[in-house]
Design a protein that fits this description.
19% strand, 53% helix, two-stranded antiparallel sheet
Amino acid sequence: MRTIRPSMARIALIVSLAGFVTACASGASPALTPVGAPVGDVIDTSGGQRTGGENAQPAASAAPMPGITEDGVGAAVDDAKIVRTGTIELEVKDVPTALVTARDGIRAMGGYVGASRTENVEDRPLAQITYRIPAARWEDALDLLRGLNGQTSKVVTEQTEAVEVTGQVIDLEARIRNLRASETALQKIATGATRISDVLEVEQQLTNVRGQIEQLSAQLGDLQDRAGFATLTATFSVPVVAVEVATRGWEPAVVVDEASATLVDVLQSLTTAGIWFAIVWLPILLVLGLIVALVVWIGRRLGLIGRRRTEDMPLAG
């Protein structure tokens, strides 16, 4: 009996058909069953009747169900995936007390502290805390930080941002479904393959498909996490007093030290100039003076200087 060996073209064709069928199946829209309706009952929007089930009755005899209008059109459900982020800078009277109050309030909402950093800047406490907050409690968290039970003295800056990622989530989910269908088809092909080359090729494609599934699943999980828990970074600091601002940077001791250093520099410069004059310029001036005196003495001895003076005198009448 001859064994049928799948060729690589057949493998590729089966994988492509599996992905196409999965995409078509995911695009189909099933009939809507409203919340509270008996199992098996389906709303017929064309005739206004509810069919299926043992106790099917005309829709006209029943009150409109929640989420369904009188003309049978289903109300839209807000399932949008939104990633919310924000920053807020607060000036509080007491940083440690404000941190404890904010932490307890965020925890009561179901959130948690994602990151924190504290430091002292010019002897003033400064804290930066990153909170992860359930998306449904976003506004409550902002109100909490703005008030802090009277601890907050001023909201310096506040910035929020909302990015909808519904399309990305739907796209990732569809791609993962298609890849899982391809994985199932490849597994069936692998069980029927007999040649080693076919088995190795199928295993290679399976490894590639599973790697893509893991990568897309990680991206989907990250999007769902960021959409489910908003990120808010809050900075806590103590307000600066006006007198402190006016006197900041001026210290009498520092001024005295700087003046003393300047005086020392001036004295050092004068001392250096005197040393240079005494050691270098004074001997040079003495030598020049001796040379000039020697020239004058020689000129007088030779009568050059006296004769010139006599010639220059006017004759008496």
